[in-house]
């Protein structure tokens, strides 16, 4: 039931967030084209992630799925919340991030240890949340992880 509530909250807030808060331009790429990138590249990793999870590219929210790929974070509700903890540790600050962390902590108190570990992993990594990942799609994932000291979740 709590997963359902959190998912509904996300669905109701996603469109306004995309429209009013995300100022970046949507990427001009589709997920099928991502599979043409070299096998170990960020672009191929993103395409694989999208196909594996039966997702489409979400306009102006492409970076979110890139963070999943770079941190190797799953897509369950508590893992999504954990990823926001990672981003908080990495230096990201936004109203949306705080909203997810607050609601997630209330709904998933038994995952607090996981959330704290995610925060620590984000803190140990060099800040990377703000990068323009659309220009990094040809780069090898392992190089990005190594450069920014990103530990897998």
TrEMBL record:
<protein>
    <recommendedName>
        <fullName>Coenzyme Q (Ubiquinone) biosynthesis protein Coq4</fullName>
    </recommendedName>
</protein>
<feature type="transmembrane region" description="Helical">
    <location>
        <begin position="95"/>
        <end position="116"/>
    </location>
</feature>
<keyword id="KW-0472">Membrane</keyword>
<dbReference type="Pfam" id="PF05019">
    <property type="entry name" value="Coq4"/>
</dbReference>
<keyword id="KW-1133">Transmembrane helix</keyword>
<dbReference type="GO" id="GO:0006744">
    <property type="term" value="P:ubiquinone biosynthetic process"/>
</dbReference>
<dbReference type="InterPro" id="IPR007715">
    <property type="entry name" value="Coq4"/>
</dbReference>
<keyword id="KW-0812">Transmembrane</keyword>
